[in-house]
Design a protein that fits this description.
Elements lengths: L1 E8 L12 H5 L2 E4 L1 H7 L5 H12 L2 E9 L8 H16 L6 E5 L12 H13 L5 E5 L7 H6 L2 E4 L8 H16 L5 E7 L14 H12 L4 E7 L13 E7 L2 H17 L11 H10 L5 E5 L14 H8 L5 E7 L1 H10 L4 E6 L11 E11 L2 E3 L9 E3 L3 E6 L2 E6 L9 H5 L9 E4 L6 H4 L5 E5 L35 E2 L1
Parallel strand pairs: 1-3, 1-4, 4-5, 5-6, 10-18, 10-19, 11-17, 11-18
Antiparallel strand pairs: 2-3, 7-9, 7-20, 8-9, 12-13, 13-16, 14-15, 16-17
Helix pairs in contact: 2-3, 3-7, 4-5, 8-9
Length: about 500
Amino acid sequence: MKILIGEIAHETNTFSNEKTTVESFKEWRWIHGDEIILKHRKVRDYLGGMIDRAEETGVEVIPMFSAFAMPSGVITQETYKRLISELTDSIKAVAEYDAVCLALHGAGVAEDVDDLEGGILAAVREVIGYKIPVVVTLDLHGNITDQMVREADVLLGVNFYPHIDCYERGIEAIDITKKILLGEIQPKMSLKKLPLMIPTSTTDLPPANIINELCWAHEENEAIIDCTFFHGFPYTDIPEVGVSVVTVTNNDQALADQIAEEIAIEIWNTKEKFFPDIDNPEEGINRALKIEGKPIVINENSDNPGGGTPGDGTHLLSAMIKANLENACFGFIYDPEVVNIAHERGVGASIEVLLGGKTDDMHGRPVPIKAYVKTLTDGKFIQSSPMGRGARVDYGKSARIVVGGIDIVVCSKRSQTLDEQIFLLHGINIRSYKIVALKSSQHFRAGFEPLAHEIIPVDSPGLSSFNLYSFKHTRLTKPVYPFIKEIEFSQEDKVK
């Protein structure tokens, strides 16, 4: 039994003015063949799960092409064509195979291509036809489309946000593929789309965790292979944006339709609960200072590079400096210019620089600071978060600078903060700090909830703000909640 495996993953924030290019992917991941095995074996991600499960069960996996770019703006047409050709050429180079397993995302957008994943799958089908099974893992922030359902045999979404179950979905992809090849199952899928967009919502808390429990209860039925609540990615201006439910059954289309409908109704009935009140940075800091115990983690949701933002926003950092905080740390802000100055001047130097705010005005202006250079590093470490544990991370040259009572980590590559490793790399033990600030929406919870005394999300202007009204969606083809309150959820929204 031979299964081809590959990956093309990008979460596209169409409101970003930064185009995503081949170089954007090569900065993070652009690998072929056996290097995929070497990079992902024993790593808790989708491909890691596929590889480990195949090796455990005696299945031969043939690695093709793996590309990942940090969430950012629309993928250029040239890059889209290159991604497709790299993947399909690698398939054509293999003489014999029985199935294909792909790790995609679900919220990719290229120039003139609203549905990146649908386009990828259609291109794969042109090469392999429709008799070879194709099983796909997706992010729960996927904006699932009709074309994705048509072109794949099975779509499997992660259930958790933070995405601590990517590895398990990779395992499941191999197991389901084997069952299809052995004739044990004949998957039937149903997609139910809702006229609803929600901000990024953790599944650690209600209402998302309650919806997941309803999905899992249905999965106790042996006829139901999978039931996934896809949150959608609201920072994408395409007609297909929004929440959906995908149910996969063993050769029972009617049951798939029924369960998808039931879960969709439950989501719709609790939709208001997905819109909590969030503090601004000043309010969050004031709250944190009144709480006994430490560390208090403040996450800057609105400048989350994991959602396509610049990562150099200064709203929260400015508020921390203005508050004259003591015993506080910030990890991290993207500013290669400041990093280079710190490395040139060396440890112990005093530098006067403009920190952050260099991408746009939305995320805050550059902050004039006089800082002490405390630590210099290469920005490399092994990820410890349950999400992607074991991955080798490289944030480029980095520095720890001190402004008053605040230790600030500055890096040369943009990313959200997933665990404490970037702090530890710079000699910062977050357990000894009163306030620990970072940029992330929900993924940080996997690494920080066990360490934090309390977590306070804050929101301000930014490309991943909880305030969906701040985004001008111009391409919606039908009314969507919360922009239109007086809409009803009906059978007309069903797509198979």
